[in-house]
Amino acid sequence: MLESLEMIFSGFTILYMLFGVVLGLLFGAIPGLTATLAVILLVPFTYTMDVTNGMATLIGVYVGGISGGLVAAIMLKMPGTPSSVATTFDGFPLARQGKAGKALGVAVFSSFVGTIFSWLCLIFLAPYLAKVALAFGPFEYVAAILFGFTAVVTLSGDSIYKGIISAALGLGLVLIGTDSLTGMPRATFGSEFLVSGFPYMPALIGLFVLAEIFSQIEAKDEKFVVPSQKLSGIYMTVKEIIVSIPNFIRSSLIGVAIGILPGIGGSFANFVCYDQARKASKDPDSFGKGNIQGLVASETGNNATIGGSLIPLVSLGIPGDTVTAALLGGLMIKGITPGPLFVHEYPNVLYAIFNSVLLSSFLMLAFMLLIGIKVMPPLLRIPKHVLLPIVLIMSLAGAYNINFSVNDVWITVFMGIIGFIMDKLKYPKTPIVITMILGKAFEMQLRTALTQSDGSLLPMVTSPYALIFVLITVLTIALPVISKLRQAAKAKAA
């Protein structure tokens, strides 16, 4: 580790890493442009670099891209990346209260904590956690996703019925398109447009970015999205840090655990962490109104997936999400294929990856606290008639760049209209996003599981990992219900 650190500081590696972090932060801060897109665009530029410089640059982009989404989420209520959707819930209300500086400071520090925790897991627990991930079969995935669906109940707002309708709409949309197992078109009504289905990324951009643009256009009396900010008090106090320690630990553990499961990642982790923080809070009603613990949960959790998703990559050669799949491509163009023997065959590359995660997190923290928080918010606080068209164009361009498909642009516009209508009717949008993110994986894993077990659900309770998730799911649903019944009984007695 020390030899690798010395090599990083002796050349231009640290500068490449800083370039990657800043580029990632910019991509993350612009709605529609994601960390995945930034890494994919930069992979060809690393072709002429040596492997240390190349991985340092790409991991810098990765860390910066996941962290950068918090800026637009807090200042505009438009998540820069899917990993920052839950950050909008409390970040934007704080910005509207004139506390954008505090919100940004808390979110940046939480991102740093999540990354550092995942780095520790990456170094010390990678082989063991990779074995756990390898033990996950279809039933384990089904149980884990069922646990994720419980967040729909908590994040449904005032009406659980509206939340269930929103979740059902999301599940209905993911069923449209080509059947993942048979390859046959399903619920397309003979339309070529619907064959490709409703990918969740364009849908998410529409629901949270375009819908907010439409809402801001409607509020034409307001010249700016948020009021003028002094951006003071950006550092968390010692008391706030101490109070947040359980939240930091819980959200980091959840983020790492979700990160090691291929195909889920930070897009889902921020919802689960937010949901669990709200359930653990003594004042859950304050969430969504400017509670900094909501920011701590979301940003700690999504950044903790960074180290988590790298664990199966370096231990098994299996990418944990789309970004690590791009990182795998960056390694393979150098003739390096990660796997069980990676630590013995390429120790210098492995330690370069470890140190890149560590140093990128410090560079992100320093850049955001010293420059980013002071520069980015004023750039976003320009008159709406200038800002909104720019965000609209960038969002549609980002939707197109995901799959280079015009269909995705139309899906973004359609879901933007749906999101705007849901806002007007006060239907929560979080359940539809959760089910769209997890719906396809849930269906595919459930069908595979039932095929393997001849239609039996018994392995859900005979598999230790699946049983753990089933029990957690039952407790997660039961405890809030029991708490409400007790409160009702006390009120009746009084």
TrEMBL record:
The chain crosses the membrane at residues 12-43, 55-76, 103-126, 132-153, 160-177, 197-214, 253-272, 349-373, 409-425, 462-482. Pfam families: TctA. Keywords: Membrane, Transmembrane, Transmembrane helix. Residues 14-434 form the DUF112 domain. The keyword Amino-acid biosynthesis does not apply. This is Putative tricarboxylic transport membrane protein. It comes from Desulfotruncus arcticus DSM 17038. The lineage of its organism: Bacteria, Bacillati, Bacillota, Clostridia, Eubacteriales.
